[in-house]
Amino acid sequence: MTTADYQDIADTIPKQPGVYRFIDEEGAILYVGKAKSLRSRTSNYFGQRKDRAHRTRVMVKNAARLEFTVVETETDALLLENALIKQYQPRYNVMLKDDKNYSYICIKKERFPRVFITRNVIRDGSTYFGPYTSKGRLKIILDLIKQLFPLRTCNFNLSQNNIEAGKFKVCLEYHIKNCIGPCEGLESEEDYNARIQQIRNILKGSFGPVKQHFREKMQQHAENLEFEAAQQIKEKLLAFEDYQAKSTIVSTTIRDVDVFSVIVDEKEAYVNYIKVVDGAIIHTHTQELIINLDQEEEDLLQYAIPRLRERFNSIASEIILDQEIALPDTEATVIVPKIGDKKKLLELSQKNVRYYQLQKRKQAATYANKQTPAERILKTMQEDLQMDRLPMHIECFDNSNIQGTNPVAACVVFKNAKPSKKDYRKFNIKTVVGPDDFASMEEVIYRRYKRLLDEEQPLPQLVIIDGGKGQLSSAMKSIQKLGLQGRMTVVGIAKKLEEIFFPGDSVPLLINKKSESLKVIQHARNEAHRFAITFHRDKRSQNFTKSGLTDIPGIGEKTAQKLLSHFGSLKKVRAARSSEIAAITNLGVAQKLKDYWEQDEATS
Questions:
Q1: Residue 503 CB contacts under 8 Å (≥ 6 apart), including other chains
Q2: What CATH code is carried by the domain that includes residue 281?
Q3: Which of 43, 274, 391, 489 gives the lowest tally of CB atoms within 10 Å of its CB?
Q4: 3-state DSSP call for residue 506?
């Protein structure tokens, strides 16, 4: 990927937090990075900086394109980057040897629940908050919670029977007032759970009552001139506020889900897909769709969802959408969330598909301003012939024979609206007897595209048949035999009025005679005719050579060709002196020719 390539898309990259990915021509992810501002960060890879590492320069050179995903916060960018690196293990990323996960605050599902930090999410009904990207700051938050709400830290089974039996004794935590002593029944389960509920509210971001409590404590310390204690409370509150927001990238309340959103333009639609596995985003992808008719969003989603799920091997049992639709080809349940984590995932998908649409629009505008003459011509041809794709690869066919002798055919290839002579192909007609242009065209078309299919070569976008409805119909017989109908646009061009015929349509298309696209079609037709005629002449010349010289015993094709090239014709070879022939070949050949022609004259 060059600096010029980046400049073409720079304006389409947002200045928001997100994750960017460098991808090679085969679709493999080379590098995943996070950014506070995607545009500022990605621009650092391009330009005239000389301090970039050699490895970075090589990575950028090997990249074919740059993709990005927009998120809400820097923390979300860090978490998504971590998830994608673990999933794809890009070649140019630094791998974490310990492969650790981020930390959570767990409220354990048990009587008198414990609250602690963990890296492992166990789906046993416990509640997890996070993930948190800084374990040091996380400890400050947990210490703050324990100061406000004394909790037990032991792992005893505090069942009613065990407490009544007096199996446990209070520990040091009770004596230093970090625990009220539920193990000896000194605190009711109702009071304990009320504090747990307040902790849940705080971790969810309900700060009203807590902030009021802190303000009162800080005011009390200030009135007592305990400024250091007041500052400590303030710092802990600020630390807690920094980490109270919930991530949309990793969630403990969600298992495996697929998230889809769609946005429709005039001729295209874009479907964004987010794949979530075990509560973490592991893949994002936006698929472009070409709209042929006035299709509703529901129709587009019904078409795209099964194909994207199959492509990315999804077995998620839930699909998150912004509307209720029927998906007959899948057993997954469609969910239209109104609030919560799933709603945030849907909003993230919608945000990314809008950015993708914006990027495509800006790229189209930039491309239109930078169109080369060839691109302009091909775009015009695409519109004139009502093609789905740009005809970057065109092939044109023509037959040639004189009174049925030496039938041949030719295929010329145009790439990017220009002849690609190294790809021209000649055909000797093998199965047709006599001057039958229709059967010859059927044979050649079948042989050409059967070979391309067998060799897994790319097919052209446009096939031009030199001739009218008859030749076109013959060509289509082979196209249908090979199952290629719909995969290539096939047209015929009649010589007299330069009419363009389409398969199955008796009414021809008349393109403006001054149209650049018609000039390319005519050029291809004329080039195919020239190439076929030249091949036919060469073949007739070879046959003439064979019947005139190679019939003489001891004279091979190479010797005959050498003599004809030098003297110009069989008549002049026969009129030449033996010494002249010997100078071109050798005395033996000259003597054989002399003996043969003397014998021929004696018997005639």
A1: 472, 473, 476, 490
A2: 3.30.420
A3: 43
A4: coil
